[in-house]
Amino acid sequence: MQFNRFQTLSDIFILIGLLIIGSVVSASLFALVSMPFIKLGFFEIMRLAKSNADPQYIPFIKLFTTFTAAGTWVLSSWVLLRIKKQNPMQQWQFRRPSPKQVLRYLPFLFLALIYASAFLLKVNASLPLPESIKNFTSVENKKLMGTFLHMTTMNDFLVNLVLIALAPAVFEELFFRGTLQGMLIELFGSAHVGIIVCSFVFAAIHLNAEQFIPMFFLALVLGYVCYYSRSIWPSIILHFLNNGFAVWVTYLQDTMPVAKAIVADDYTPPIAATVLAFAVIGGFFYWLIKKNQTLNTITYE
Q1: Same domain (yes/no): 48, 138
Q2: Do 124 and 211 contact (CB within 8 A), yes or no?
Q3: What average pLDDT does the segment 163-183 reach?
Q4: How far apart are CA 21 and CA 44, in angstroms?
Q5: Is the peptide bond before 99 cis (omega within 30 degrees of 0)?
């Protein structure tokens, strides 16, 4: 058992190394391929991708970020699994959820998460965070996302739905829930500890101190849904719905006061709706865990 944990810890360090390599390689490759099209040098492109300053290059920067994310999250996971001679599709759990009714209840779980997250955002805002942390994380993230999410047409909305909502949902779920979570469960010998640690890393790596608590809670939900359904599809769908909702309310913020309040993190959900939301989330997992236990018993027998 001790040897297995040591091996798992070694695999995690290898995964971190592959993460860095994947990020550098994918960013460099995209910059090299892009040079003839945008008429800039390699290092100019790399600086441009970091600055996010010139509006005319925003579409290019979005593609750059998406391609780099694929190399960072997906390529690193895939390479590690191939090194271990494991089938990535099996390890990532691309299979039908069990029980299959999980997908039917996901819209209700997502609606509950909207209100629960809004409440937790207010809790997060009440914490006495040092200004240095706020300025280092939240301000920069808001500036970046504000630039990326600027939309004036339906085409802008659809592009953002794919590049900012769908792509990160798939890439991040393959890494965090499909790869890292299982490794952490093996390392600690506990599903709960593994999911909690993975969720903490997920929230921390987004570098947004003002949204850490709701992001951590969302990651917990994604982790447990993936674990108990034995499939990555529910967590990908929930992650996409969460990202897509952010894109949608940003698109509507100039015409809907509620959307504008949500984008500005000023929306306060009604107490009754908040209580109901947490009740729905709790009820969903009570049902899912019971179903999981029943399926385990049937399988065993």
Answers
A1: no
A2: yes
A3: 97
A4: 21
A5: yes
C-alpha R_g of the chain: 20
Q: How many other C-beta atoms can be found within 10 angstroms of the C-beta atom of residue 215?
A: 23
Distance in angstroms (rounded) separating the CA atoms of residues 139 and 267: 19
What is the model's pTM?
Answer: 0.92
pLDDT at 34 over 50: yes
What are the angstrom distances between the C-alpha of 167 and each of 66, 128, 154? 7, 34, 18
Whole-number average pLDDT of the chain: 90
Domain that holds residue 81: 1-91
Q: CA 77, CA 174: separation in Å to the nearest integer? A: 8
**Where residue 170 falls among pLDDT bands split at 50, 70, 90?**
very high
- Same domain for 71 and 141, yes or no, is no
Helix intervals (H) in the chain:
2-38, 42-51, 58-69, 76-83, 88-91, 102-125, 131-136, 138-148, 154-160, 167-175, 181-188, 191-205, 212-229, 233-252, 257-263, 271-300
Count other C-beta atoms under 10 Å from residue 126's C-beta.
9
Same domain, 100 and 87: no
Q: 300 pLDDT exceeds 50?
A: no
